[in-house]
Amino acid sequence: MTNQEWMNRGQEVLMNNYGRFPIAMVKGKGSYVWDANNKQYLDMVGGIATCSLGHCPEAVLTVLKNQAQTLWHVSNLYWIPPQVELAEKLTASSGLDKAFFCNSGAEANEAAIKLARKYFYRKKQANKTEIIAFEHSFHGRTMGALTATGQTKYHEGFGPLVPGFKYVEYNNLPAVEQAITDNTCAIIVEPIQGEGGIHPADPTFLRSLRRICDQAGILLIFDEVQCGIGRTGTLFAYQQYGVTPHILTLAKGLGSGFPIGAMLATAEVATGFAPGDHAATFGGNPLATAVANQVIDIINQEEFLKGVKEKGQQLREGIQKINEPRIKEIRGRGLLIGVEFTAEVKELINICMKKGLLVVGAGTHVVRFVPPLTINQTEINQALAIFRDALQDWDA
Ligand SMILES: Cc1ncc(COP(=O)(O)O)c(C=O)c1O
After folding, report:
1. Host domain of residue 93
2. Of 22, 87, 297, 379, which is the most exposed, with the fewest CB atoms less than 10 Å away?
3. What is the pTM of this model?
């Protein structure tokens, strides 16, 4: 079967909700993937910042196979040992106390929104339901997470949205202060905005958010679905900012491609949930949590995280050296890098793909590099060479 044939069959039976490239992926190993025509690509997309350990990593494969022969799924009617172990690891390394597991980033944010509201409800402050979110943010596609997403293009046609959300400018502290009322229960923010174009928060902004949350008795929610799990060179991006949230959401890189999401919270805030308040059938099942335990064990090592920082630096400097006048700005941290151009980048991404390099947009003018964290220096140099070559062919 060729790319064309898979595309033709797919168009017959799949919904038209994705703008797909005209290739079908059939195989992956490390930093490379192959399409149905057997063309090889160097993958700087990594399933959109998700395949943190590359494709089919041996160390995870062994765990996955063992768990698959032992126990797949039982539901949360019972205690699940690998789920307990994963919660122990995530709480120990985050400074938070309790975990809830689900299957995706949107679900993790949905859980965070529900926990924030229920926490105040239980404290007899049922008026506190309003959530402050940011312009250009992205939190997912379920109704709560979609409403939290501060981009009207994603809202259009899906109303009525969930009541109780306000949007303010990112990195604008006075705007946040103005938006707070007695009814505010939480602020949800990405320490580095991903889909919105790779915009890191100003360190003082993030720290001030925590301060004003503490002063006003409001919960701070960090959405690290994209920037967490080692992506920026620390296990959590907020660790580079010296500020902790009350609630943290994770997904993407946590399973390195195996679907799993998580919400962590302080012990105090976690009292918002009692049995029956929230649930997910698949959440934290043995298979997903066995995989995520192994992923965390590999990523949460000093040497590994140092490597992410170094490789991020190499990639960033390499892009700078291309000396391309159409580049407006290079942003991001670690291996979460956005390159903003003066023109729309759709065609540039297509040219890269034809030359065997996968990159993804973040908004219309930003090319995003989010490769596996296991990518090596030679592969980064190869990506840079293809990117330079593609820029020469791009007449925007
Ligand atoms: C910051 C952030 N939050 C939430 C989500 C939604 O995650 P998912 O697609 O797993 O629902 C994404 C996805 O790109 C994201 O980048």
Report:
1. 60-299
2. 22
3. 0.98
The number of domains in the chain is 2
Cβ of 223 closer than 6 Å to ligand 1, yes or no, is: yes
Distance 314 CA to ligand 1 centre (A): 26
Atom 7 in ligand 1: which residue has the minimum CA distance? 105
Clarify whether residues 47 and 76 are in a common domain.
Answer: no
Q: Which atom of ligand 1 is nearest to the CA of 261?
A: 10
Measured from the Cα of 190, ligand 1's closest atom is 1
- pLDDT by residue (tens digit) across 264-295? 999 999 999 999 999 999 999 999 999 999 99
Does residue 224's CB lie within 6 angstroms of at least one atom of ligand 1?
A: no
- Ligand 1 centroid distance, CA of 255 (Å): 14
Q: What is the pLDDT of residues 151-207, one digit of tens each?
A: 999 999 999 999 999 999 999 999 999 999 999 999 999 999 999 999 999 999 999
- CB-based contacts of 373: which residues, under 8 Å, 6+ apart? 52, 53, 230, 231, 253, 299, 304, 307, 308, 311, 335
Instruction: Specify the CATH number for the domain of residue 37.
Output: 3.90.1150.10
Q: Are residues 249 and 369 in the same domain?
A: no
Alpha-helical runs (H) found in the chain: 3-13, 46-49, 58-68, 81-94, 105-122, 143-148, 152-155, 173-179, 203-216, 267-270, 286-299, 302-321, 346-354, 377-393
The model's confidence at residue 396, banded by pLDDT at 50, 70 and 90, is confident
Q: Is the CB of 139 under 6 A from ligand 1?
A: yes
Domain boundary among the residues 243, 265, 299 is at 299
Q: Read off the tokens for 126.
A: 């049922």
Domain stops at, among 258, 278, 299: 299
Question: What integer best gives the mean pLDDT of the chain?
Answer: 98
